[in-house]
């Protein structure tokens, strides 16, 4: 019995033509009785092999090659896989109207969970002793020394300044009453609460960009909404909310960057890549734990470049451009962002303080 086999031809560098799927008709042995091939093959009556009859030995082997236009295939840009149609070149990231509505409802629910009774407890809790105090020093411009990078602490100082904190309250011990001292602590706690709230849509978009179904995206956002550790640390004056926010932003931008993999060096491709580097630098500027994020993106980048090295459709100059782009966006940009926030740190802390004993300004 005759059967059909599909063969796909791949263009090699320097080839003059490309071929689409070529259908091969495998014959039968000479002793097989005469049979007819189904008219559905080849497009019906007339030409293309439809209605072929006769001994199998006469049928033999035949195939049809369809030339394709490489000019249209090259529209995807440098480094795009050849043979990819318009559908393959389109980003796989898309969120429907119903998904946006579901995300909006989940975010409203998360806002209630994150912001409910944010004023409780009305006293200094855990490491608010340290980071509330540092916020006051930024407001007063008093130099201090701390083991953590400055960004998250400066964000608390900005939130406190907007809320009316004058930097006088010293947060010197756990349990001190905020209300009696007139400290606008709710405004300072609002900043990490909003960053924790932002992690809900960030998680949803990240899962969608990675190609997961709408139900999986909604489930991931709900899990972030009700996760106790994330909920607790986002309601206090602690560095972790800022660290997790910028970590989430980094991973989201990195996932969105890969939705543009068929359009290398396009505007969106560069935007997502640069935003990945900026947010990675911000995460590193909050706590040194951000180095684990740098390692994660670094290993992922090496894997991506290794796969491109084995892709015959990517020339060596194009590969060099990919390498240079990632070096700039994922190494130079994060380091620049990190040094920038330290520059702001030293500019703001222009008065001598207790930090002089550890390191001169």
Report on this model:
This protein has 361 residues and is mainly α. 55% of the residues lie in helices and 6% in strands. It has helices at 56-59, 70-73, 86-89, 97-115, 128-140, 151-163, 178-181, 185-209, 214-226, 228-233, 240-258, 267-286, 290-309, 316-348; strands at residues 3-7, 18-19, 22-26, 35-36, 53-54, 62-63, 67-68. Strands 1-3-6 form a three-stranded antiparallel β-sheet, with no helix packed on it. Strands 2-7 form a two-stranded antiparallel sheet. The chain has a two-stranded antiparallel sheet with strand order 4-5. Residues 1-91 have low confidence and may be disordered.
Largest sheet: 3 strands, antiparallel
Number of extended strands: 7
Q: Estimate what percentage of residues fall within beta strands.
A: 5-15%
**Shape call:** flat
SSE-based structural type: mainly alpha
Query: Cα-atom Rg, whole angstroms?
Result: 30 Å
Mean pLDDT: 82
Write the H/E string, N to C. Answer: EEEEEHEEHHHHHHHHHHHHH
Assembly context of the chains? single chain
Share of helical residues: 40-55%
In angstroms, what separates the terminal alpha carbons?
Answer: 87 Å
Would you identify the regions where 5 or more consecutive residues have pLDDT less than 50?
Answer: 1-91
The strand line-up of the biggest sheet is 1-3-6
SS field, number of helical segments: 14
